[in-house]
Amino acid sequence: MLNVAPPQDILNRPAPVGIEQAEAALVEHYPRLTRLAYLVLPPSLGRNRRVLTAHALVQRSLPRGRGDGGVDIPAPRRADPGYGFVRRQVVRQALEAGLPLRRRALPKRAQFPPLLPQVWGLRLFPRSGGADELALDQRLSALSGPGRAAFVLRGLDRLSDTELRRELAAVGVEDPDAAVEEAGEPAESAALLDSAEFDPCSLQARPTDLMRRRQHMKAALVATAAVVVCGTLLGLPGDGWGPDGPAAPAYARNPAAEAALDPAHVLRVGPAVWRTSDRTDFSVWPVRGALADDSGLLRRALAVWARPGRSVQVSATPGTPSGPPMGAPQLLFAGRVDRVRVVLFHDGLRITRYAEPVDSTSGAALDFARVDGADQSSAEALVVGRIDGNVRYLTAPWVREASVRDLLAPAAAPRPLKRDGDGVTAPLVSPAQARDCTSWDVLQLRDDSGARLLTDLGELAPARLTWGAPGAARDVTAPAARDAWARTACLLPTVRSHGVRTVNSWEFARQPLPEANGTAAWLCTRADTWSGTDSRVLAQFQAPAPRPAPAGAVAARADGSPACGTHEPRVLAGVLWKSRGGHWYVLAAGSEDLARVAVSGGVEASERGQLLAVRTQEGARAQLTGRLADGTEVGALR
Predict the structure, then answer these.
(1) Which of 308, 327, 562, 572 supports an S-S bond with 590, CB 3.0-4.6 Å?
(2) Is the peptide bond before 117 cis (omega within 30 degrees of 0)?
(3) Cis? peptide before 43, omega within 30° of 0
(4) 131-141: per-residue pLDDT in tens?
(5) Poorest-pLDDT segment among 139-143, 525-529, 633-637
């Protein structure tokens, strides 16, 4: 009997991966695979959807049958071909999830929201990290999908550049060399990829908007009944009152609904009503714009609002319904802004912006922002146009003067900002669209009651910036307030596109640092939303620094917390700090109503009052607690 050696290509051919082998690898490495999927998925999906999608992608990564094919495993994982196969499937699907949907291309399964897993009534997201994790998350957001995959595979699985190129080519990346170059050289921050900030298996849960959920259930029942009753009306003849541009086909002939969409019925407020009205909000804004009498433009805007077609780009700030108007809306503005025709409506609850190119109706956009409960200070401006990284505002009729102030230059004088006869400002740089925080231009508006600062956070309604203790916040006019905001402005991207109405910063403590290292400031920055829920709170530590001083260090952050608000005007936070002499300390500070602060865990100590400073070791982990004068315990912000 002859022993014949197998050909060399057979020896080098990767062995097929069976479903049992892949399943065993998936179960063993499930936390790492879901972390990998979460990091490669586009951050624009939001933390809750990224968590669910990451679990769905991993669970869909098993072979379709036994012996589904071989896989060439890089050296660090060569002993486990099952892991290499599943990892490749996870990365491929995560990259597909970031692709835009195209009209003439068959969509990938990963591009749709996952059917499973689903958690009814809860929002799930990983535990929050610190300033380093936040900076790494912002860096990942700036990378393309392939670049992000290269960065993550290098950081988590320690793949070399050669192995990275082979893996990226295997998952369908067209230019692996460009992706590896975009990911850059290995950075110290790559070690943070293993932190809890990016762990979709260690989660926090928060309820969704309970009132809105109940309203949606009722609306679903009403909509079901409406479909049954109105289904027979779909085939009725008639072309309506005129062309509706990019609107979807009409679904019913309801007289009340048609009246709300008739340009002749829109509400128009006179130019002097705001002077005598008891209200000072969007409801008394006069109609403005050179196209306010263009019935064709208004008809298209109203029709698209009611029935946006598939080509219309629709966006809504969190907590804002995007349905049709409940009645004839108020017309605020209709005119040409740069290269776009823009229409602004107000229906009592929302601001609706319709925009279309001046040369066609294709590429129309529809934006919604919730503004119920607006007052004079929060109804002073609306975003009317964005182009080339700039933003234009439509100002309220009671605004007397507009200017621009750079938050990062607190001592600089404001720059005048021109407005046309309709109150539309000249373009100014939008910090919401900038990638680097080298400046932060805000809109300063002055009326009879004083000056206010408004900042663009990527929404129709700019957010008002204030300064002071909860319940006593005031506008940012004092030099001390501007100095503090100069070190807070670069933290504003953490609340961008979140439906924010106001952002208040409050210095709740000043602490002399050990070893005569100067005095540090403790600030609590709270972003409140138009919906009244989903507020975001940041506690920051501002150590002494020469000007221009860097942004404060984020000591803690929380979503949906009442801390630093009118309902709970207190806060407690701490940091691990290194002195100029090289010694490490646990520093903690609370609001002035705290009678004692204690630390436990890596170090045990307590001090009377609102401040604590205890010497410790590098990397120490400690737990803070505080007590009020009546003995009530106060936990640290987290």
Answers:
(1) 572
(2) yes
(3) no
(4) 777 788 888 88
(5) 139-143
Contacts of 551 (CB under 8 A, 6+ apart): 437, 487, 488, 489, 490, 491
Residue 324 burial (C-beta neighbours within 10 Å; 0-12, 13-18, 19+): middle
Query: How far is Cα 124 from Cα 531, in angstroms, rounded to an integer?
Result: 20
Nearest Cα neighbor of 118 from 26, 35, 208 is: 208
**Cα-to-chain-centroid distance, residue 578:** 32
Q: Spell out the alpha helix ranges (H) of 171-209.
A: 176-183
143-184 pLDDT tens trace: 999 999 999 999 888 898 999 999 999 999 999 999 999 988
For 442, residues 6+ apart whose C-beta sits below 8 A from its C-beta are 404, 405, 406, 407, 431, 453, 454, 455, 465
Evaluate whether 490 touches 503 at the Cβ level (below 8 Å).
no
Residue for token pair 């070190």: 487
What tokens were used for 509? 């403590």
Share of the chain above pLDDT 70, in %: 85
**Closest Cα to residue 418, out of 440, 388, 438, 395?**
395
pTM above 0.85, yes or no: no
CA 331 to chain centre: 29
Task: Transcribe 10-71 into DSSP letters.
Answer: HHHSPPBPPHHHHHHHHHHTHHHHHHHHHHHS-GGG-HHHHHHHHHHHHHT-S-SSTT--B-
| 365-370 and 313-316 strand pairing | parallel
Q: How far is it, in rounded angstroms, from Cα 525 to Cα 135?
A: 18
> Which ranges of 495-555 does DSSP label H, i.e. alpha helix?
none
Q: What is the dihedral of CA 402, 396, 375, 328, to 10 degrees?
A: -160
Burial (CB count within 10 angstroms: exposed 0-12, middle 13-18, buried 19+), residue 229: exposed
361 Cβ contact partners less than 8 Å away, ≥ 6 residues apart: 245, 246, 300
> Do residues 317 and 534 touch, judged by C-beta distance below 8 A?
no
Amino acid found at 457: L
Beta carbons within 8 Å of 343's beta carbon, 6+ residues apart: 291, 297, 298, 301, 331, 333, 334, 353, 354, 355
Among 186, 137, 134, 136, which Cα is nearest to 164's? 186
Residue among 448, 502, 446, 492 at smallest CA distance from 471: 502
Cβ atoms of 443 and 475 within 8 Å: the answer is: no
Closest CA to 60 of 26, 35, 29, 36: 26
Q: Cβ–Cβ contacts within 10 Å for residue 526, how many?
A: 26
Average pLDDT over residues 474-492: 94
Residues 576 and 584: beta-carbon distance below 8 Å:
yes
The pair of three-digit structure tokens given for residue 123, joined into one six-digit string? 């929002």
Distance CA 588, CA 44 (A): 34
> Distance of alpha carbon 19 from its chain centroid, rounded?
39
The tokens of 545 are what?
Answer: 């620094």
Contact present, 352 and 368 (Cβ < 8 Å) = yes
Closest CA to 381 of 455, 283, 457, 462: 462
